[in-house]
Structures are given as C-alpha cells and as structure tokens.
Specification:
elongated, mainly alpha
C-alpha cells in the first residue's frame, strides 16, 4: 500500500529546509522542527500519562530553541534532541508528582467533630461584618486594622492619628465589647 504523496512531500520539504539552512536561521530551523515533531512529542507525552501534554510540549520546544545553534545531524538530530528533552520533562513531571502530598476528598459523613468549626459559626452569624455591627466606628476600625489587616499597633496608630497607647486601649475595649455582645447573642439563642 502506497503512502500519501502529500505527507512524504511535506516531510521532504522540511528536511530540505533544515538541511539547507543549517547554522544560519534558528527561526526557520525551529519552525521546521515544530511542524515535524510537535504532534509526535505531544503524543509521546500523552501516552506516558502526563496530565497536560500540550503545556509540556511547549516547554520542550522552549528548551529546544536555545540549543538549535549547536545542533548537528539535521532533522534527525533535532528529533533526537526533542525526544530527549521530552523524556526529561516527563521524568520531571513524575518526580514532582511523587513529591506532591496525597490529598483526600472531604467526606462529611466521616467527620467525627462534635462542635462546629469557627468558620461555620461565623458564617451562621452573618460573618465578621455582622459581628462588628454593634461596635462604635472607632472600635470597628481598630479591630479591622489590627485583626483583619494584621497591622502592627504602630501602623494602626499612624493610620488613625492616635498614640500607640490609645490604640491599645481602643483594641482592648473593642474586644471586651465584642465578647459581651457575642455572649448576649449566644444566651438569646439558648
């Protein structure tokens, strides 16, 4: 059975391009190698079980480009180099996979906790913003800057235009008021 003439003609044209411009124009050589071997490299990576063979194929050709200048052996040399790089990228992929921690899906029926998590409690109460509603503007601001934004006392003092002692006192009072409001809400729910 005779192979289609188009494929062999294209392959011969690529070989001629590669052989005719050896050592002159890396872009032409790269284009010829890409057209000839991108599909086979991607197929190799897919067959070897790489999750994203398209991305790894692109990495292979990015690693190949700087080496074109020292390449010998024409299109066959390019093929050998490309598949060597592809193999190395595949090995790197599996090494990374081995080092990655094994994740387990969360199964609520297997969760043995008897107390709801803090996130669940805050979510049920309407979030942090709802918890701060009963506080004065200054208390809300100091808690937002200290707890939510995780700023230092000095940074908060600079932002609010107060002394560090005043910020510490505001934070202490704000936390005390927040605790009292939370206890009141919890007693009302009981």
């Amino acid at each position: 059975m005779e192979e289609p003439l188009v494929l062999s003609t294209l392959a011969q044209e690529e070989t001629d391009i590669f052989e005719g411009t050896a050592g002159t124009d890396p872009a032409v050589l790269f284009g010829a190698a890409y057209r000839s071997f991108a599909g086979p490299v991607q197929g190799y990576l897919r067959a070897r079980g790489v999750d994203d063979p398209e991305a790894v194929t692109q990495d292979v050709f990015l690693a190949f480009y700087p080496k074109i200048g020292a390449l010998t052996g024409g299109l066959q040399g390019a093929k050998s180099l490309l598949f060597s790089i592809a193999h190395a990228r595949m090995v790197d992929y599996y090494r990374r996979l081995e080092r990655r921690p094994q994740l387990s899906p969360y199964d609520p029926e297997q969760d043995a906790r008897t107390t709801p998590s803090a996130e669940h409690t805050v979510e049920l109460q309407g979030g942090a913003a709802a918890m701060l509603d009963g506080l004065s503007e200054e208390h809300q601001e100091v808690l937002a800057l200290r707890v939510v934004a995780d700023l230092s006392v000095e940074q908060v003092a600079g932002i609010m235009g107060k002394s560090t002692g005043a910020v510490k006192q505001l934070q202490r009072r704000a936390l005390h008021n927040l605790k009292a409001q939370t206890l009141q809400r919890n007693q009302a729910k009981s």
